[in-house]
Amino acid sequence: PGSAEYEAMADLGAGELGACCFVLVAGGLGERLGYSGIKLGLPTESVTSCTYLELFVRQILALQRRGGDSGSSEPPPLAIMVSEDTEKGTRALVEMLCRKVGAPGDWIQILRQEKVPALADPAAHMALQEGSPYRLETKPHGHGDVHALLHTSGLARQWRYQGKEWVVLAQDTNGLAFLTLPAVLGVSRSLG
């Protein structure tokens, strides 16, 4: 940032923003962070308590305006990959946020990844549910599922038919992910 080359790439990339679709990978809970809810519901700062999901949505809408697509009546496509653990909380947060920003209720697509048996140790022993020697512990399969879900759900094909060229993936708690997106798109476009 700040160099002439960066600014040139950001300007080039700004023309690509209208061709973007966005995907958030949000299958896990905030347990490691001392938070019992979904990570998209975590506040990004303490003054307004803006959640990660609201931050992402506001950034996506700002990118739409920067790309000159503000005349579009629909926001850029957005999908969120959830798990059984996060689906209910994510759907509730999405519904509330769409009302807050005036977006259509069906704007954000939810894709649910399935769970798989969890491993207990490096020797790949199966993890058992606490208190039950006969039930396997399960966890979301992982971030790699997002590509298969985009394909099997038909979203990737739908976005392509809509003329979208770029799928932008972000982790649910990486609030800075989109700040350099215009420059990244510019570099990608310049390299063909």
TrEMBL record:
EC number annotated for this UniProt entry: 2.7.7.64
InterPro entries per record: Nucleotide-diphossugar_trans, UDP-sugar_pyrophosphorylase, UDPGP_fam
High-level lineage: Eukaryota, Sar, Stramenopiles, Ochrophyta, Raphidophyceae
UniProtKB keywords: Nucleotidyltransferase, Transferase
PANTHER family: UDP- GLUCOSE PYROPHOSPHORYLASE (PTHR11952), UDP-SUGAR PYROPHOSPHORYLASE (PTHR11952:SF9)
Top-level EC class as recorded in UniProt: transferase
Name of the protein: UTP-monosaccharide-1-phosphate uridylyltransferase
Cofactors named for this entry: Mn(2+); Mg(2+)
Substrates-to-products reaction catalysed: a monosaccharide 1-phosphate + UTP + H(+) = a UDP-monosaccharide + diphosphate
GO biological process: UDP-N-acetylglucosamine biosynthetic process
Record-stated family: Belongs to the USP family.
Molecular functions (GO terms): UDP-N-acetylglucosamine diphosphorylase activity; UTP-monosaccharide-1-phosphate uridylyltransferase activity
